[in-house]
Amino acid sequence: MCPVRTTLTLEEDVASALKARSSRTGESFKAVVNATLRLGLAAEASPPPPRRYRLEPASLGATVRDVDLDRALRLSDSLEDAEIARRLELRK
After folding, report:
1. Residue whose C-alpha is closest to residue 40's, from 19, 14, 20
2. Model's pTM, two decimal places?
3. What is the torsion angle, in degrees rounded to the nearest 10, for the CA atoms of residue 70, residue 74, residue 77 and residue 81?
4. In angstroms, rounded to a whole number, what is the distance separating the alpha carbons of residues 28 and 32?
C-alpha cells in the first residue's frame, strides 16, 4: 500500500490520548493514529445489531367494552371538522 502524506489538525485531548497510547505500546505515533482510524472506520461500517423491541400488553379493563367506538370516531371527526372550519375563518 502506498502511503499518503497529509496534515491533520487534532484536538488537544485526542492528540494527548494518541501520544499516551504510543508511549504505552511503544508503537510510533503514526502507527497508533492509523490503527485508531482503522478501528473507528470498522466500527462505523458494522454498527451493533438493534435491540429487540418488546411490547408488554396492557389490559384496558372493562371500560373499553362499554364505549361505542363508532360514536367516538364520529365525535372526533366532528370536532376536527369544527377546528378546521375555525382556522379557515381566522385566515379570512
Report:
1. 14
2. 0.50
3. 170
4. 6
